[in-house]
Design brief:
Shape of chain A: globular
Structural class of chain B: alpha/beta
Largest sheet of chain A: 7 strands, mixed
Structural class of chain A: alpha/beta
Order of helices and strands of chain A: EHEEHEEEHHEEEHHHHHEEHHH
Strand order of the largest sheet of chain A: 1-9-8-7-6-2-3
Oligomer: heterodimer
Radius of gyration of chain B: 21 Å
Strand content of chain A: 15-25%
Number of domains of chain B: 2
Number of domains of chain A: 2
Radius of gyration of chain A: 22 Å
Strand content of chain B: 5-15%
Number of helices of chain B: 13
Largest interface: A-B, 46 and 49 residues
Distance between the termini of chain A: 47 Å
Number of helices of chain A: 12
Helix content of chain A: 25-40%
Number of strands of chain A: 11
Largest sheet of chain B: 5 strands, mixed
Order of helices and strands of chain B: HEEHEHEHEEEHHEHHHHHHH
Number of strands of chain B: 8
Helix content of chain B: 25-40%
Chain lengths: ~350, ~350
């Protein structure tokens, strides 16, 4: 569809959100530990100090736990399966940062292709993403510009809001997004030339405020391809604690484990469950023989970076990193993906 | 005051003389205004080493990696590893010695005295200085911390931004070390359990509701376990596969492995994990506060551990990490231990 631009005064923002109350609305909420996306009564506007949701929006589309089916032993010793495809009521996520929108677009590719994951797509199709452009970078470690994104990127989003002070500049990007505006069209007006210019100016300034930069990212894949056996990774992973923070909180990481959980023994009853998993846990690649092809932290750090900056690029011609800065902000020991990749590029040069 | 220059000189000499295998200290470059662990292999690299209120990490955790490395290598280099220990970290060393996880000769300890300060709680500084973003911290003149931000320098009273655990610290000076920088200054500790007081005032039902709510948010990233110097088990009930599986493990043995906890992050599984961890830390936790610091969803794990610390002291007169020659709390029995729970 063609994009459409509108203006929404902040004084009308809550009224608009209230009009969406037939859906689940997730909204940024400040907790002691940082921002979350919480189902709260829509009131007021997006707080000016909102940075990013520590647990990214992927959690609402690709939840940490998904029940695939339930099983039960029958009287004749057979097994009865019950499908548990999720019934997902329409949900709106407000305040999605543009990088997180791009991350959802990357997840869409992973869960499509030759096999379309029904659990993922049931949630995805029920989800509307309302983005919020970054007038100032949410983190010191934002580097979306280095990875083909921007603080006003539109990919993956249904609407993109830009804060103009007392108004939101609303860009409608999809049919789904357009529907949200239709019912309350009286609240919205068409932007003036002045407002269009202001929006462009704010977007440009937002981009200029980004300090971190990963140079020439497209040069990384061929370089990384030569580095599989390099001792470089040993040094880079010296302080890694093998925790799951960098991957669980990554908006694009999507690896999972599948387990059968037994709930009763006679008759046997249980369920098959998908949960998040991470290449950073030692047991991620543990074979049943006891052999582990990624036996140490170096090989696991290498996997994380090669997946994001080599394998994914080979598969989808895009990075599996959107430069949100979470893994840098939250790593307990300060492993800095920009620094590691920059060193990798210059390694042995 | 701890002199960074003298610290660097000492490490440089140790490396030059080959007395240590490598050195673990702190360098700038952690997230926000925190330092980060630095592994120094060459004397030329000692310039990276710093000492600041951002040196929050308990570096004794990395002794686990060294121990595993030694077990793996055919002819391991058995020279000691050098590392910086604050008072709290030195208590962890004492526990590891008590439990015979390490030997004293495995480590060369450079102690640093926190004197009347300590390390910061980054969240407190971030809140205090918003919207400025803190980039680096240094010790200021008496009782202050200097913060450089993206909008210039700020000087803040230390008491406002020190980590809670530092405000309740019983050991501001290293209890075990080969050399110590900084002065030994007696630091009053009038309210050692202040942070658990309001929690203790709650009823049992309120506490249970509180923890159910908290643990329901856990992502099971296991950062609390991964960062803990005491969580050194090769096999953990929380893992889906026990590491102890080897090529010789039979199918029958594998089938008999009990799966204690499911991978799903539902409250009952999360609570099981955290309570197992907490009970295994009773009489062992030195309150370095790292588990709580690293938790990405802000679980108040210190509350649990501090409460157990207080119980151990009240019931058994046991204080963790002050004497490496004492037997560990859990593995000793005295005639006068309370027994009224036996019916």
């Amino acid at each position: 569809m063609t994009k459409m631009d509108k203006i929404l005064p902040k004084s009308s923002f809550s009224r608009w959100l209230k009009s969406l109350s037939s859906m689940k609305v997730f909204f940024p909420k400040k907790e002691a530990s940082g921002w979350t996306l919480t189902e709260v009564a829509a009131d007021g506007t997006i707080p000016p100090d909102y940075s990013y949701a520590v647990v990214p929006p992927k959690k609402l589309i690709f939840p940490q736990e998904e029940i695939f089916f339930e099983f039960q032993q029958t009287a004749d010793d057979g097994l009865q399966l019950r499908e548990t495809l999720p019934e997902v009521p329409p949900q709106v996520i407000v305040g999605v940062r543009p990088c997180d929108g791009r991350a959802v677009a990357a997840l869409d590719q992973v869960f499509s292709g030759s096999f379309e994951d029904p659990y993922y797509w049931r949630r995805r199709r029920a989800t509307i993403l309302i983005g919020l452009a970054c007038n100032t970078p949410p983190s010191n470690n934002c580097f979306c510009l280095s990875l083909e994104g921007s603080p006003s990127s539109e990919e993956g989003l249904d609407l993109l809001l830009t804060d103009l002070g007392d108004r939101y500049y609303v860009r409608v990007l999809t049919e789904k997004g357009g529907e949200l505006i239709k019912t309350q069209s009286s609240l919205f007006s068409d932007p003036t030339e002045e407002e269009k210019n202001l929006r462009n100016k704010i977007s440009q300034e937002g981009a200029q405020k980004i300090k971190r930069n990963l140079e020439a990212a497209r040069e990384l894949p061929p370089k990384l391809k030569t580095m599989f056996d390099s001792p470089f990774w040993d040094e880079a992973a010296l302080s890694c604690l093998r925790c799951g923070i960098c991957t669980y909180l990554c908006p694009t990481c999507h690896c999972f484990d599948i387990n059968d959980e037994t709930r009763a023994l006679a008759p046997l009853k249980g369920r098959r469950v998908r949960t998040w998993d991470t290449c950073q846990f030692p047991d991620f690649t543990m074979h049943s023989s006891g052999h582990n092809p990624r036996p140490n932290r170096a090989s696991r750090l290498r996997q994380r970076l090669l997946h994001k900056f080599l394998y994914f690029v080979e598969l989808y011609d895009r990075f599996q990193c959107v430069g949100c800065g979470r893994c840098l902000d939250l790593c307990p020991v300060g492993i800095d993906i920009i620094e590691v990749l920059s060193k990798a590029r210059n390694h042995g040069a | 005051m701890v002199s960074e220059d003298k610290l660097r000189e000492e490490v440089s000499e140790l490396l030059q003389e080959g007395k240590i295998k490598y050195f673990i200290g702190f360098e700038n470059g952690g997230p926000g205004c925190l330092a980060r662990p630095a592994f120094i292999q060459q004397p030329e690299a000692v310039g990276r080493l710093i000492w600041s209120p951002g040196c929050v990490h308990n570096l004794t955790r990395f002794l686990q990696d060294e121990k595993r490395r030694r077990a793996r290598e055919k002819n391991p280099d058995l020279r000691p590893v050098g590392l910086i220990v604050k008072g709290c970290d030195s208590r962890a060393i004492n526990v590891l010695l008590q439990e015979k996880y390490i030997e004293r000769k495995d480590v060369y300890l450079i102690g640093v005295s926190c004197e009347l300060m300590g390390v910061i709680d980054e969240a407190k500084i971030t809140r205090r200085l918003y919207p400025a973003k803190p980039l680096q911290v240094k010790f200021g003149a008496k009782d202050t911390i200097l913060v450089s931000t993206d909008q210039g320098e700020s000087e803040i009273a230390a008491s406002e931004v020190l980590a809670d655990r530092c405000l309740e610290c019983p050991a501001n000076f290293p209890l075990v070390a080969d050399v110590v920088f900084g002065e030994k200054i007696n630091k009053p500790n009038p309210q050692p359990y202040k942070s658990i007081a309001s929690f203790e005032a709650k009823s049992l039902e309120e506490r249970w509701a509180f923890w159910q709510d908290q643990f329901s948010r856990c992502l099971r990233c296991y950062a609390c376990r991964s960062v803990c110097p005491m969580c050194y088990c090769d096999e953990c009930v929380a893992d889906s596969i026990a590491y102890a599986v080897s090529a010789d493990t039979t199918a029958e043995e594998k089938a008999q492995k009990v799966k204690w906890v499911e991978r799903n992050p539902e409250p009952q599984e999360n609570i099981f994990y955290h309570l197992v961890r907490a009970t295994h830390l009773a009489g062992r936790c030195v309150d370095c506060g790292e588990c709580e610091r690293v938790c990405p969803v802000g679980l108040p794990l210190r509350l649990l551990n501090k409460k157990l610390e207080k119980e151990a002291k009240a019931l058994f007169g046991y204080e963790v990490g002050f004497d490496a020659n004492l037997p560990p709390l859990i593995s000793c029995f005295r005639d006068n231990d309370p027994q009224d729970f036996i019916r």
